[in-house]
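tool_call: predict_structure(chain=1)
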Amino acid sequence: MSETKDHARYSRRRDMLVAGACGAFVAGMVGLSYASVPLYDWFCRVTGFNGTTQVATSAPSQILDRFVTVRFDSNVGAGLPWKFVPERTSIDVRIGEVVTVNYSVVNMSARETTGIASYNVTPLNWGAYFQKINCFCFTDQTLKAGEKRDMTVVFYVDPALLQDSDAREHNTITLSYTFYPQREPQRPVAEGRTGSQGRI
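tool_result:
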């Protein structure tokens, strides 16, 4: 009889341990799923993985004699009635030279619209060496009906590129931007009130 009770206690303890381990595993997986996006973004920005460019705060200390061709690509996502083009389709720049280029965007619709731009570079392994000093990306851009705006990108190609045997074999890099539609900014409640009843 005592052996039966001991066996039942052992079974309950084992079941509780298994249930606890499963719960911890599920909680860990949920936590990782929430952390995966910022971790992936951080990894891309540090390593240049998947063509993610780097952000610089100052110009490099040297400009080399080697030239590379930088191509400029522009795209607009579905649902955003904009015309978006670079001022030039390509330029030849020296490695380490700070360059300023403009993109032009026009709202072709009869209403105010908002978009936000993302970017990448190809070849993908050049992302770690394409340094942006100034950019219009990841910032809401709101254009009135028919409005035209010039947007500036300031960048340089890092001389450290020449130390990477895989990256230095290429002579052309493409900087690609895509604008996607954003929801219209919500107005404060007070702006939408009409009459004494306070209706919206």
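agent: The chain has one helix and ten strands. Proceeding to next step.
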